[in-house]
Amino acid sequence: MKTVNYLKAPLTINWAVTNRCNFNCQHCYSRTDPSEELDTPTLVAAIDKTVKAGVLSINFGGGEPLLRKDLLEIASFCSGRGLRVSMNSNGYRIDRETAGKLKASGFSKVGISIDSHIASVHEAFRGIPGSHQKAVAALAYLKEAGIKTSISTVICKINHRAVQELITFARQQGVQQLNFHNFKCSGLGYSNKDELDLSAAEWKEFYLQATAAKKEIRDLEISLDDPIIASLGMKTETDSLVKGSICGKLSLNIKSNGDITPCGFIPIVIGNIVKDDFKEVWDNSQVLDRLRNKKPTGKCASCASYEDCLGGCSARALALTGDFNNPDPHCWINEP
User: Fold this and answer.
1) Closest among 191, 224, 194, 190 to 319, alpha carbons compared
2) What is the distance between the alpha carbons of residues 192 and 146, in angstroms, rounded to a whole number?
3) CB atoms inside a 10 Å sphere around CB 28
4) Which of 57, 208, 265, 305 is the most exposed, fewest CB within 10 Å of its CB?
5) What is the largest CA-CA distance in the chain?
């Protein structure tokens, strides 16, 4: 498939339907966001605008999506309009009955956040006693209901040397996919980066282990969403469609109040789904144009992997250097 800068419409909208959460995660990007929530009719009408623009799937996040009492109603509308519906959840509110209702409303996949195979480590990171057991139980209920499950793990200081243990744990839970998410320096993630983020050398060590496992393992899909793995000769799952970060190329983020941003970790508002023409924002945003046409600076200018990674994660580069075009601070390749 020919690689392009971006598609005619996002494949996926990551929609933070609420900023409310029952957890106290140390890396949360939404906890410091005071945005109000759209009411049900306004939200449904906004979702319909994205369908008409050609969006194929919607992933609900936040905050904890299940804190919205109308989530099932919203999901039913989405699935009725032909959208593929998924969600990221901490799992705390998912029991057998809820899992059945999620299936009935059209959810095809639910990702549960679990950051360690060790309960005490996960619970210290997420701030809620008993949350590990609840998350594991949620996976079982979802699987029983016929919903595809995945585990989402934020890689940071608490777990970066536990690749094999995390894989074994994921297999034990019977999930189809294990997502290793690179740590973002956004919201509380920025405030706690000195305690939680890895050095460039530690990121290389982690990705060497993770990419080796990805090559060997066939019974579990290991997802790595970090474009800097290009320097290790590996590709992300979306590499055949677009290079580098997918933000503004394959996906967009919509906040609880309808504000549109390139991704949940780039706090630059480029429009509002309620007030603005969605297709106009997608096609003509100057911010998105900059993300789609990055220019190599510093060590990126002479790097053999640049055409594939395009400088790595744009959100991290912006958060830590102030410029999308600067090299990803996680990159381990030395300056020339």
Assistant:
1) 190
2) 37
3) 22
4) 208
5) 58
